[in-house]
Amino acid sequence: MFFILALFQGLALAQTADMVVVNANIRTMNLGQPQAKALAVAAGRILAIGENVQAHIGPNTRVINAAGATVIPGLIDSHVHMLGLGGQMETFDFRHTATVAEIANTVAARAGKLPAGEWIIGRSWDQTNWGGQFPTHEALTAVTPNHPVYLTRVDGHASWVNRKALNLAKITAQTPDPAGGKIVHDDAGNPTGILIDRAQGLVGRIIPEASKETVKRRLLLAAEECAHLGLTTVHDAGVGEKEIAAYKELIAEGKLPLRIYAMIGGEGALWQRYLKSGPEVGDFLTVRSIKLMADGAMGSRGAAFWQPYSDDKTNSGLMMLKQSDIERVATAAVKAGFQVNTHAIGDKANRTVLDAYGVVLQGANNKRFRIEHAQAVALPDYALFQKYGVIASIQSTHATSDMRWAQARLGPDRIAGAYAPQRFLKLAIPIANGSDFPVEEPNPMLGFYAAVTRRDLQGKPEGGWRPDQKLTREQALESWTIGGAHAAFEEKQKGSLEAGKLADFIILDGDIMMMPESALPKVKVKMTVVGGKVRYEAK
After folding, report:
1. Which of 9, 27, 61, 146 is 20 to 30 A removed from 99 (C-alpha atoms)?
2. pLDDT tens digits for 221-235?
3. Pairing between strand 285-293 and 505-508?
4. How far is 133 from 482, CA to CA, in rounded Å?
5. What is the dihedral of CA 83, 88, 94, 100, to 10 degrees?
6. Which residues, other chains included, contact 176 with Cβ-Cβ below 8 Å and sequence gap of 6+?
């Protein structure tokens, strides 16, 4: 028996690799073997990892000499919007635009190239860049009277439209607010052109749908950008029929350069169909979760709180779902083998989701329900994440983007439970990190930097914002690798580099675990490998 086992091991050792990487500084994220110098890949998986893989090199093996470069597991962004990123790359990105006039001028230039009546769509304006006041339709109406304009705020939870769009949607002073939404009015009672949360649908529903070709093109554009940035898996938070179909076409054509964990966007026909057919698990596309929206966002004051905003005493935000709605979906999801991932930012929304989950989950479990963002949690409610095994799907760059105004929104008491990843970790609550792109930049190195420094790209504030909530570099990398894999039931397949797991890894031009913090945002990806195939290589 010993002879047969030794013979089998010898044959395994002699297996020829498709690719080997040598002379590398490999950070494996495998506690049993945290570092290595070489790895071998065969049939899309890690064949061997350690000091020497020479025995696996054959005449057709691609040998990559890393020359001391750092290799880490492929990064996993646990909350993204792929179609939104592709659309932004093709249209506008107003994230850093400092004035209303500059946005209006950009829109006017686009209008000059389009026939009258054609929609102008864009996103990522942020009123906090110019003092905090919402813009009004007048600035857009003045320069684009003949084109309907629909510009989404950076967080996706408010839209700014012109008079043409308001007229087409028949929004007047008498139009009531929809449930879970708000039409902002001026002092005379007229709509200003700002629509918050579900009120966006009043205009959104009359915008012509993107064509199948446009959806596919934009998803591929976003996917290629992700590969360039070292992302090998993304969790696409809220997909529809067209996205699923486009992903499947791209996979069939061999064009999709990374893996997609797709969350079905709400209780529509797609969800009903999957409830009947069950989860779909594949190498490049997995559909086994639903994305719900409990409330809005803090930047547009739509996140739901028990008490009013500290800087707006008349407003405590908007709940988009009732506890009973979440319970209904969660009950059906558990029965059909699906995960539930619910957007919740304010303390009221987080508690409502936790209570709904608790009714269905009862106690300890492995259903891995998630709260997306989990941004402002009342201190007693952290224990409920632990009690029900709920994953906190966080975005470290939200803290450094929002720190300019978060204290003013929340006040001194609520801020203690906000943007607080160490509070989760101290209770052994799993976290998964991400960007929420295109709300934030898709570059995961910016997320890593934000997590470990709690500073902006100018290095402010000195010492970091609420520095007790910084992640260590090990915790941060885990949240972008093993944490993301666990949040998708995929930790046995990815998230660390060890024999038998998928050959998803990236080569960096610096060691993110050792370099000065100030250098982290400048780190570049030299190569991205997914399933043993090079999906991006720097020129």
Report:
1. 146
2. 999 999 999 999 999
3. unpaired
4. 41
5. -90
6. none
Return the SS3 of 366. Answer: coil
37 neighbors 69 (Cβ within 8 angstroms): no
Question: The dihedral of CA 193, 197, 202, 208: what is its sign?
Answer: positive
CA distance 180 to 177: 8
pLDDT, the chain, mean: 95
b/e 468-485 (16+ beta carbons within 10 angstroms → b): ebbbebebbbbbbbbbbb
3-state SS string for 63-88: EEECCCCEEEECEEEEEECHHHHHHH
- State both tokens at 12: 């395994």
Say what percent of the chain tops pLDDT 90: 94
Distances (CA, A) of 257 to 79, 252, 427: 18, 12, 36
C-alpha–C-alpha distance, residues 74 and 496, integer Å:
8
d(CA 364, CA 198): 34
Residue 45: phi and psi, rounded to 5, are: -130, 165
If you average pLDDT over residues 136-162, what whole number do you get? 94
Cβ–Cβ < 8 Å for 88, 97: no
Pairing of strands 25-27, 70-73: parallel
Helix, strand, coil % over all residues of the chain, rounded to 5? 35, 25, 40
Residue 448 pLDDT > 90: yes
- CATH node for 91-204: 3.10.310.70
Please state the domain extents for the chain.
91-204
CA distance 113 to 368: 49
* Partners of residue 49 on adjacent β-strands: 39
pTM: 0.92
Lowest mean pLDDT among 17-21, 121-125, 210-214, 259-263: 121-125
| Torsion angle, alpha carbons of 105, 109, 110, 112, to 10 | 130
The DSSP element (H or E) to which 341 belongs, if any, is strand 339-344
The pLDDT value recorded for residue 4 is 44
Asked if the model's pLDDT at residue 320 lies above 70, the reply is: yes
Torsion of CA 202, 206, 211, 212, to 10 degrees: 50
In the chain, the largest separation of any two C-alpha atoms, in whole Å, equals 90
**Contact status, residue 123 vs residue 86, Cβ threshold 8 Å:** no
